[in-house]
Amino acid sequence: MLKYSIPVKTVSDDLVYRLLFLNMGLVIVGYALGVLTGMASVGPMRWLKYSVLLLSILYLFKRSLLALWLLTSYMQATIVLGGLFVFFALISSDPALAVARVLMYVVPFFYVVFSVGYLLLLYPITQVLHAFINAINWVYLFPIVSFFITGGKVTDTNIYDVSDKNEDTAFVSNHYGWASTLFLLTSLDLLRNVPLPRWRKLMLVVFCLIAAYLVLISGNRTSWLSLLVVAVVFIFKYRKIVFYQKVLLSLLPLGLVLYLLQDPDSAINVRLEKTRTQQKKGEPRVKKSMKMISYFNKSPNLWVTGIGVFNKKEIEIITGWSGYHNSYFEVLFGAGIPVFLFFLFVIAIRPVWFYIRYFATYYLFFLPLLIIPYFESNLTGGQFLFFPWFIMAILISYSRAFARIKLSIKSGAAP
User: Fold this and answer.
1) Alpha carbon of residue 336 to chain centroid
2) Cα–Cα dist 96/92, whole Å
3) Distance of CA 146 to the CA centre of its chain
4) In a domain? residue 283
5) pLDDT in tens, 333-386
6) Is residue 6, in this structure, part of any structural domain at all?
7) Residue 3 within any structural domain of the chain
8) Residues of the domain holding 184
9) Best CA proximity match to 401, nearest among 362, 358, 371, 363
10) For a designed S-S bond to 180, which of 52, 71, 215, 292 qualifies (C-beta 3.0 to 4.6 A apart)?
């Protein structure tokens, strides 16, 4: 019988959690340095991130091999998913290169899976959830603060092309939009669910207002779409705020939108015009997907094996672009339909089901983590949303399972 007890310390004190926090933070720092140095820092930062990831994995193994062995039984779907990626890479035309590419996803993915599983096994589910919401909140505050440090102003109404106009900026407009979206929603979740000191509450309120404005002036339509979807959950499912407060909160972004519409050069007006142009010419991602579908139909076996994930050379040959800018297309065309369907089930369908059923009443943060990757690739450990996306997808998917597992361990029923 396995003896089991909840540790006295909190999850925030656990080095496994802190290393995940560090890995997430290094990704965002790496993006900032990449923009500021004209990509000169990418090489050194890549080695630093790989080194920290390797040390984090080694430390995880050092903590408890028994716990990790138990997790292989409890989290079989994620293990199978990683195995499928590797298997279909092995049967590709260039297995060595395909496996090397696929490990860019599988290794950090397994690190996230076992780290989150380990923490769920040891600590109360709610404590783990709140700790990661807090981590995401701190990490994605950094781009918002950097906006002002590098010359941004609250009087700006369009930062869509900020990287062209301001050489000192640390991020591009999409980064400001995504970071502000995550910060805004995690702030609301912290304020409504977690006891916080007064200074932190005040800080969150002030930066929430700034984040809401940054989302709008970033011109990032993905963030706008994400917040519109969250608004549906907020109005019909969320129970942490009474209805009249929901109405008042909704007036703030509506007022900002009306204010920005008065400026013909604002991000909203510029993006609306670009959207109308794209409707006439065709949306680039749709064009890419149609070219890939046509290519795959000529060789139907590719629908099973794919062309290999992160195969930029082959993608460019087929579509004329070096990437899909779409995490889901990367899996579908890179690994084939069988892997794609299983990936969709484990990373999207199952988490959404559990989120809507058990979490949406209290938390707003999750859905953008599934929507934004449709418009940008986030499948490697060095990409902007990799860690929050997979951390939260695994946490939400397995939270109730681990609650049952811990009860069985306490009763002596576990192996």
Assistant:
1) 22
2) 9
3) 20
4) yes
5) 988 999 999 999 999 999 999 999 999 999 999 999 999 998 888 888 889 999
6) no
7) no
8) 11-410
9) 358
10) 215
